[in-house]
Fold:
Amino acid sequence: MSDLEFDGLNVWFGEDYDRVDAVINAHFTVPSGTSFGLVGESGSGKSTILRALVGLVPTWSGTMRVGGEALGVKRPRGFYKDVQMVFQDPYASLHPRHSVDAVLGETLKLHGFDDIDRRIQKLLSDVGLGSAFRFRYPHQLSGGQRQRVAIARALAPEPSVLLLDEPTSALDVSVQAEVLNLLTDLREERKLTYLMVSHDLAVVAHMCEEVAVMQNGEIVEVMGVAAMRAMQPTHAYTKHLLESSLGYNPPEDLR
Structure:
């Protein structure tokens, strides 16, 4: 298993007058085998941290460590075997002309695995899909089924870390709980470390032990889920987020 460390992380886009600071001086640690959430409004920098970690955003400074090993400009050999990402939109993340068999088989071959046939069947079973789905294409699957395939692809290299970027927000409410429960079971079975981005505090409370709250690129508070459920924030913005998650609360004179 691998832990994650972020120390003074800054991420930006553009240069000089066009520069936009997306993440500012972020500090937090995700211990091995735990699930850590990043929450905040859209544009607060949550997903940017995940993308910087996997190398999709090259303009960053500070320190990012996986399993105690600091990352540089290029990811070390074996990084993508240890760290995998599940994206928000399962349809966009799967090639429309590749069958489930091709998606999983290509990933397994890329990472040097043998016994491809057995491994594909095992992966499909692990994510709750039977062999009947093996030769289907993305357009023949529901949103929940596509996301299960995306999770199976992420599990194929046998990683220790999964980065989850709003993994259920594009799904119907009726299947969101199924996918979240699947992810919970997989973490327990495979002893995985999760770093999860979500705007839904209920999802984070269900999935994570600890949460970092982001506002305008900065982490304003790190708190345990128990404190979040008890409505015990220390920062005004966190209080605002928690109150907003409870629904509309009219002013006194309108009650």
